[in-house]
Amino acid sequence: YVGEISPRKLRGFANSTSSFFWSLGKAIGQISGQRELLGSQSLWPMLMASCGFPALIQLVTLPFFPESPPYLLMHKGDQEGCKKAIRQLWGEGHHQAEIDDIMKEKATMKNTKILSVLELMKEQAFRWQLYTIVILTATVQLCGINAV
Question: Are 105 and 74 in contact (CB under 8 A)?
Fold first, then answer.
């Protein structure tokens, strides 16, 4: 969501920042799970419950956020809703250039063929990218980094 609602010039920063906070959360989970902190038999329920606090905050606050402007314009075709969401997220100002960028992206996506998984596996142009993604994902799964 953060990556979609960010202006184009800040989108890369927003996406990389969220990855940083995911990693930071994993590290904090590992550290707080040590026996000396919250990893003891009597305190582990608090450690497990602490994961629910960010989810609860998100559950309460997310309904008050507007829909993503690209979603409104590209998938629903609601240009006025898109303008309203942009004004709510980015403030008043001239945002026609961002709307034009979204429209260009929509036009590009219209001409793009969506491949099925089987077609993707058969397409030789994507084979090395597919191998790389599978190997990286398997490596992350096997190394245990996402066990937090």
Answer: yes
Question: Is the model's pLDDT at 3 over the cut of 70?
Answer: yes
List, for residues 15-63, the tens digit of each pLDDT value. Answer: 888 878 888 888 888 888 888 888 888 888 888 888 888 889 989 998 8
**Cα distance between residue 119 and residue 135, in whole Å:** 20
Surface-to-core class of residue 47, CB atoms within 10 Å of its CB (0-12 exposed, 13-18 middle, 19+ buried): middle
Cα gap 129→21, rounded to integer Å: 26
Specify the pTM.
0.58
d(CA 12, CA 91): 20
Tell me if 72 sits within 8 A of 87, measured CB to CB: no
The residues, any chain, with a CB within 8 Å of residue 46's CB and separated by 6 or more, are: 38
- Is the CB of residue 83 less than 8 Å from the CB of residue 95? yes
Calpha distance 22→12 (Å, rounded):
16
